[in-house]
Amino acid sequence: MDIKQYDFELPEELIAQVPLEDRTSSRLMVLDRENQSVKHQQFSDITQFIQPGDCLVLNDTKVLPARLYGAKEDTGGKVEVLLLHQTEGDEWDVLVKPAKKVKEGTRIVFGDNQLVAECTEVQEHGGRKVRFSYDGIFLEVLESLGEMPLPPYIKEQLSDRDRYQTVYAKEEGSAAAPTAGLHFTKELLQELQDKGVEVAYLTLHVGLGTFRPVSVDNVEEHDMHAEFYQLSKETADQLNRVRDKGGRIISVGTTSTRTLETVVRDYGTFQEASGWTDIFIYPPHKLKAIDGLITNFHLPKSTLIMLISAFAGRDFVLEAYQKAVEERYRFFSFGDAMLIL
Predict the structure, then answer these.
(1) I need a labelling partner for 45 at 20 to 30 A (CA). Which of 95, 118, 219, 306 fits?
(2) Which fold has domain 3-63+160-340?
């Protein structure tokens, strides 16, 4: 399958640089797969489309302030470090810039020597393994020194770092936000629950691979990044119960979708599970775990637009994207949303 089948023209000015003041004031494009119809709404209108007995599945991962700016201990040369994931204890896989400055044994200091990273292994493409040393609690040190790792297409500074977190973020570990969830407020979630909609939680720690463009012409040759997920017994039992009663499972975001599809692929049903998933969902894959999907508008030629094309059909999705461009929807992490039913 040719990657060009998932390309589209996107004016740069439609890439949202800052979040809206009110999370629920984003626009919402509603796609009906059966009727092949499109509606234009506000995100706060989502209560009209999710019914009692349905279940929203939210990814409760929390973004780490994973971008650190430090200096080489010996020369003072500036180094940027981006945390990817914890491997063991105080050892992490990271990206460094400029990579050529950081060799095995290089020590990088941050702040007033509050944090020191020693490179223990050189990897490809700027990747390094480092071991951190510090006093106190690592996450507290990181909170004081780190910055939010905003996607590369966002050029503006974020004045309030909480706006790159969902209101239900809980489990520390992501290098990027599950952005479909950014549109929800606690009040909107309560309104849905008061209506009889169930809410369930899982965890998938989002890696920076989510922003990596597909660099091969043939989609099937793409090497998908792996991300850690966890589905509790409580959530698995809840989802099975909803499905048994005829309710719809509506996934909030592609991260939740990848987790649910991984579990159903591996076990045939929802059950307690955790591990690393590199599932790559693209047409003609048929999604078995979900009945609806809330998502943002994604990058051209990305694995994310392929996932929603597997759910709603490539032609229908690309037609909807063309309408979104014509109607001046806001794209990507801080942009508008799409509900596919």
Answers:
(1) 306
(2) QueA-like (3.40.1780)
